[in-house]
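Dig into these lines:

——
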Amino acid sequence: MRKALLLAAAALLAASAPIARGAERAAPFFIGLDTKTVTNAWEGYFQDSFEWYAKDHHDRFQAEEAGGDPARQITQCRQMINSGVQGLVVSAQDAEAAKPIVSFATGAHIPVFTADADIDSPGVKMYVGFSGERAGQELAEHLVDYLRTKFHGQVQGTVLEMQGPPGGASSIQRSKGFHDVIDNYPQVKVIEAVGDFQEAPGKTAALEVLRANPHIDACYSANGPMAVGAVGAMRDLNIDPSKVYTITIDATPGVLPLIRSGDIRMALDQPPAYYTAIAAHYLTAYLREGEAALPREGQTIDASALHLDTQVKHAGVYPWADGSAWAPAKITREYGHLWFQTGAVLVTKANAGAPYLWANVKLPPA
């Protein structure tokens, strides 16, 4: 009788034990994501990828978006913590305003990772993302090279800068990075248009500026929709876009055809599918192993060292199959915590059709 009971207990334990996938997984977790907003395809892919990664690893998850409201984001995160999540990934609407999220989570012994938009707190375990400032710098360097070639060794000319909403963290960073480089060349005249990160307002703002300044050599846009709007404004004013060196952050679905046509020269693209997958990977590793699971400052992580691909198709593709979209990553420090600083993809005519570009993924309707 006792032997039978022991066998039954063992069978029950075996049946209820989580299924391990090699040595990588020992148990499912309950993890949460709160993102600042989901208003476009990039942001949708960013959130979807978190959910896909959790499902593929049999983790429970909850995903919320704050609609651009920092107070709402704090409330949502507190509610997720109270509902029992074991860890949080946050894409912060405001780096400063989101600090209470980390304080509350720390008090509840819940680790917080950030992705795409960081929180100014040493309590964050790790931030995963590229850098709006760095993106602006890299594109500005390409612009300087173009102007130097066009003007036979002199960096000069007139540049239209399409800016995002005044006061927004991404707007500030992307403009700052651009000016970190371009302001070193006093013979370059920069004229500014505020397009609010949207195509229609971007076109309206560009039209107003270009009517007064039709002879521009280049255009730098802080995001893809504004770049599309600026090209539309050029066409309306009979300015040939192919003669203007237009570069932008974000290779959106509207940008890619213009890259193929030559009306936009290049876009620096950030890989949304990887940000949340990398954050979820290290979050669950941290839940299993603690601080030892995190990379060390000064390390460089390449694609072969981080196995994200689950060999499951989502939206018709393997979203984490090509590490060239993010690797290599440098492990640095920001706001007193680790920063997993991914790379970004420079999109030109040569790779505008690449399947790993988020704008080439046919996402299901929301």
Notes: Residues 27-130+271-343 form a domain with the Rossmann fold fold (CATH 3.40.50.2300).
